C-alpha cells in the first residue's frame, strides 16, 4: 500500500525542492568568478562601476553584473552570455574571456579593443554568436576560430584585421552570417566557404581582396542557402559567370567598385529571388538584357560607371535605375 505524506511533511518536501533549485542559493562556478574578476580588473570605469561585488551572477542583495547572463547547471551557476558593448572599453582583447567555457554569446561590439584575437578563442566550444565589430582589433584571424563548431553568427567587421580570410571558416558547419567588411583582408576568398550549407549572408566589402567570381563558385552545388553576397569595394576582376545563376536563393548581389569586366549574362535575370543588383563602377560592357526589367522581384539595379550600350526598355518598365546618359556607349 502506498505511503502518504502528512500535510506538514509534504510542505517541507516542497520547500526543500524549492531551495535546492533556487538559482540565488546556487554558487557560481569558481572558474567563471575568477575569469570575470580578471576581466573586471582590465576594463575601464564605464563597466566596472556597475559591476559590484565579487560574484558576477549576484551575491545576496547584490545584483547580477550588467551584461552578464548566468544559467543554473546542477548545483552551480555558470556564465552563458557576456554582452558589454558601446561602453568605450579600451585595451587588448581580455584573454580571460576564453576561460568562460559555457559562453554561447560574446558581444564586445562598438568599443576600442586593440590587438589580436587570442588563439585561446578556440576553447569556447559552445559559442554561437561572436560579435566584435566596430573595434580596433588587428593582426590575422587565428585559425583556432575554426574550432567553434556551434558558431552561427560571426561579426568581425569594421576593424583592422589583415592577411587572408581563414579557410578554417569553412569548418564552421552551423555558420549563417559572416560579416568581414571594412578591414584590410587581402588575397582570395576561400572557395571552401561555398561548402557551408547554412550560410545566408557573406559580406567582404571594403577590403583588399582579389580574384574572380568564377573562382569563388567553382565547387559544384556551392552556397546553397546564400541570400546576400557583398563583394563591393575590392579588386575583383574577370566577368560575371552565367553559373552564378545557380545560386537560386540569392536576393542581393553587390559587385560595385571593383575592376570587373565583360557582359552581364541574361541568366542572372532568371534568379527567382533577386531583389537588388549592384553593378556600378566596374568595366562592364554590352547591353543589359530586357529580362532584368521584367523580373517580378527586382526592385533596384545600379549600373552607372560602366560602358553599357543603351537598349530599348520594355513597356511597363518600372525599375529604379541609377544611371546617367554619359554612362552609355551608343
TrEMBL record:
The keyword Coiled coil does not apply. Residues 1-26 form the signal peptide. This is Leucine-rich repeat-containing N-terminal plant-type domain-containing protein. Keywords: Leucine-rich repeat, Membrane, Repeat, Signal, Transmembrane, Transmembrane helix. Residues 30-71 form the Leucine-rich repeat-containing N-terminal plant-type domain. Gene3D superfamilies: Ribonuclease Inhibitor. It comes from Citrullus colocynthis (colocynth). PANTHER family: OS01G0750400 PROTEIN, RECEPTOR-LIKE PROTEIN KINASE 2. SUPFAM superfamilies: L domain-like.
Amino acid at each position: 500500500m502506498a505511503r502518504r505524506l502528512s500535510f506538514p511533511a509534504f510542505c517541507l518536501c516542497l520547500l526543500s525542492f524549492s531551495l535546492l533549485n533556487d538559482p540565488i542559493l546556487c554558487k557560481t562556478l569558481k572558474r567563471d568568478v575568477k575569469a570575470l574578476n580578471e576581466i573586471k580588473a582590465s576594463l575601464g570605469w564605464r563597466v566596472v562601476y556597475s559591476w559590484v561585488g565579487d560574484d558576477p551572477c549576484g551575491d545576496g542583495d547584490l545584483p547580477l553584473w550588467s551584461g552578464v547572463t548566468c544559467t543554473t547547471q546542477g548545483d552551480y551557476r555558470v556564465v552563458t552570455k557576456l554582452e558589454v558593448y558601446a561602453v568605450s572599453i579600451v585595451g587588448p582583447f581580455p584573454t580571460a574571456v576564453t576561460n568562460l567555457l559555457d559562453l554561447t554569446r560574446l558581444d564586445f561590439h562598438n568599443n576600442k579593443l586593440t590587438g589580436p584575437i587570442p588563439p585561446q578563442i578556440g576553447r569556447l566550444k559552445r559559442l554561437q554568436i561572436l560579435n566584435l565589430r566596430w573595434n580596433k582589433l588587428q593582426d590575422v584571424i587565428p585559425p583556432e576560430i575554426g574550432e567553434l563548431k556551434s558558431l552561427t553568427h560571426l561579426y568581425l567587421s569594421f576593424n583592422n584585421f589583415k592577411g587572408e580570410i581563414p579557410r578554417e571558416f569553412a569548418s564552421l558547419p552551423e555558420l549563417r552570417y559572416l560579416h568581414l567588411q571594412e578591414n584590410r583582408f587581402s588575397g582570395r576568398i576561400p572557395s571552401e566557404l561555398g561548402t557551408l550549407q547554412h550560410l545566408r549572408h557573406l559580406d567582404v566589402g571594403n577590403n583588399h581582396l582579389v580574384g574572380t567570381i568564377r573562382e569563388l563558385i567553382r565547387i559544384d552545388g556551392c552556397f546553397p542557402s546564400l541570400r546576400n553576397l557583398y563583394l563591393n569595394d575590392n579588386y575583383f576582376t574577370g566577368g560575371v559567370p552565367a553559373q552564378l545563376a545557380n545560386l537560386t536563393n540569392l536576393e542581393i548581389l553587390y559587385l560595385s567598385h571593383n575592376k570587373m569586366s565583360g557582359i552581364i549574362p541574361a541568366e542572372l535575370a532568371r534568379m527567382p529571388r533577386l531583389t537588388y543588383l549592384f553593378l556600378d563602377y566596374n568595366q562592364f560592357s554590352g547591353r543589359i538584357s530586357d529580362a532584368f526589367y521584367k523580373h517580378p522581384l527586382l526592385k533596384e539595379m545600379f549600373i552607372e560607371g560602366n560602358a553599357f550600350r543603351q537598349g530599348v526598355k520594355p513597356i511597363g518598365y518600372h525599375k529604379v535605375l541609377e544611371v546617367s546618359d554619359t554612362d552609355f556607349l551608343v
